Amino acid sequence: MNFLIINNPAQLPWQTIVYDSLVFVLFVSAVINAVIEFRRGVRMYAFVLVAALFYGVVLELAGMATLNMYQQGDFLVMLNFPVLPLFEGTTAMPLYVTLFYPVIFSVGFKVIEALGIATRWKAAVAGGMFMILLDAPYIIEGNLRHVVWWTWRADFSLFQYWLGWPLVDMAWQAVWGMVFYYLMLGARSRVDGAVGERWTAGRAFGVEAPVRAVSVLVIGTLLLSPLTIWTFLVGRQWPFMVVLVTVFAVITISALRSATPPSGRPDGLLSAWIALYVVAFGAMIIANVMRDGTVSLYVVVQALGLVGVVAMATFQLWARRVPAPETTHEDVVSDALP
Question: Between the CA atoms of 136, 138, 144 and 148, what dihedral angle is there, to the nearest 10 degrees?
């Protein structure tokens, strides 16, 4: 059997083709941007890409080899992992999955930069909140039975759903995303700091990026363990998730109130990424409304996710700025006196 499977695009839902194309375009543009910035002496975007790629591949392969929580749907290009001994009995992986994590974390990192939150852990929490918003239209769309990007395992004990969205997945995006951004922000001074304090390229990309990627898996698992324990002791996950999302939202809003985003227009590349994301999923949301003949709750949640994504990505446009104090004549005279 071949490791690479090519499916006929004419036999796939149009939503699948659109999403495949979206991820590919975002990934290629993120790589091009990282290369351009690297040549200018800014290595952070490349660092995020490498760490996210390593994180995603290890996460997905480890998950397939152990938990195997879902059956993948068909995409244009599939990686046929079941032909490998360790992954017998698992599912072929769409090629887009390997590009998915570099894409979402590249987008998220640029959003965090644009927010202007000075405190590292608060910026990371805001990043986790952004991941929930970014994930909402995608994770709901993928489970729709006329789309079928995947099928969740019915017998997986940790899965409890809201609009087809496993609550543990929502927690995972928030918590693990937060950890990823926290570790990336912590590395920034050694990736793009003063020349004498910078890591060498070999250490940064060959050691530090993979180590931080694996650290996200370890730390994220520990931080997610309270939800696991809650599930087995209490049962219903929704009270836990209400508290978790509320905490993330409150911290994010509080951090934004004191943030100092850069002035001027938002980053052009980030704006293009967000526009493509909104157009792609906006078309899917409209199609869902037309198919259902009504505005269902899941469609509302998808739309709210897009609204939240746009709001955070354009924060510097509508953020309230604290005006600089005016200099009075008395101040000038006072400063001139000995």
Answer: -150
Mean pLDDT of 68-97: 89
The alpha helices in 199-336, defined as continuous H runs, are: 201-203, 209-233, 238-257, 268-292, 297-313, 315-318, 329-336
Distance from chain centroid for Cα 188: 19
Can you tell me the distance from the alpha carbon of 148 to that of 141, in angstroms, rounded to the nearest whole number?
8
Angle formed by the axes of helices 120-142 and 238-257, nearest 10°: 130
Show the DSSP H helices in 85-147 as ranges.
Answer: 96-115, 120-142
Q: What is the pLDDT of residue 73?
A: 94
Say what the pTM is: 0.92
Judge contact between 171 and 319, C-beta under 8 A. no
Residues 6+ apart with CB under 8 A from 102: 27, 30, 48, 49, 52, 53, 56
Instruction: Locate the domains of the chain by residue range.
Output: 4-320
Are 252 and 129 within 8 A, CB to CB? yes
Distance CA 225, CA 11 (A): 41
Structure tokens at 216: 């996200």
Tokens encoding 103: 């894409």
pLDDT beyond 90 at 49 = yes
Mean pLDDT of 68-76: 91
For residue 78, count other CB atoms closer than 10 A to its CB: 22
Q: At what angle do helices 14-39 and 44-65 cross, to 10 degrees?
A: 140
CA distances from 165 to 99, 135, 159, 178 (A): 22, 10, 9, 20
Cα–Cα dist 63/176, whole Å: 15
Quickly count: other Cβ atoms within 10 Å of residue 25's Cβ: 15
The two three-digit tokens of residue 13, written as one number: 């839902």
User: How many angstroms separate the Cα of 118 from the Cα of each of 77, 115, 131, 171, 253?
Assistant: 41, 9, 19, 24, 14
d(CA 330, CA 333): 5
Looking at residue 6, its amino acid is I
Distance CA 1, CA 111 (A): 42
